[in-house]
Amino acid sequence: MGNLFANAMHRDVENNVIVIIHDVVPPSMGAKDVRVKLRDFHAARKGLTGYIELERGREVTIMEVDRNAGRLWCTCGEVIWTEDTVRCRTSIGVKVKDAMVKGFV
After folding, report:
1. Is residue 24 included in any domain, yes or no?
2. What average pLDDT values come out for the chain (105 residues) when binned by 10 residues?
3. Is 85 a domain residue?
4. Closest Cα to residue 38, out of 25, 21, 20, 56?
5. Is residue 1 assigned to a domain?
6. In this structure, is residue 49 part of a structural domain?
7. Biggest CA-to-CA distance, the chain
8. What is the extent of the structural domain holding 14?
9. CA distance 58 to 45
C-alpha cells in the first residue's frame, strides 16, 4: 500500500516514526476481531474506501521508490498506531530503526 510516487511518507524523525497514508488497506492486516469500516472517498460524497485498524506490533516491510523509479529503498518496522483520516483514509504510524536514512529525508 502507499503512493509510491507521491510524498506519502511523512516524518517524525525524532522518534523514528514514519507515517504512511493511503486509501487502500489490506483487510488481512487488520487487528484480530476488527471489521473493515466503509467510508466515503476523501469525504467527497462519492466513491467508497475501506478503513481497518491494523494490528499493533505487527512487523511490516516498507519500500520507497524515488520519483524517477530509479532507486528503491527498503526497511522493516513495527505498526504502532492506525488512524481513520479523511485524506487518504488510512494513516499508519510505523516505528523504524532509523528514520534519518536517505530514503525518508
Report:
1. yes
2. 50 78 83 87 80 92 80 88 83 85 56
3. yes
4. 25
5. no
6. yes
7. 40
8. 9-96
9. 32
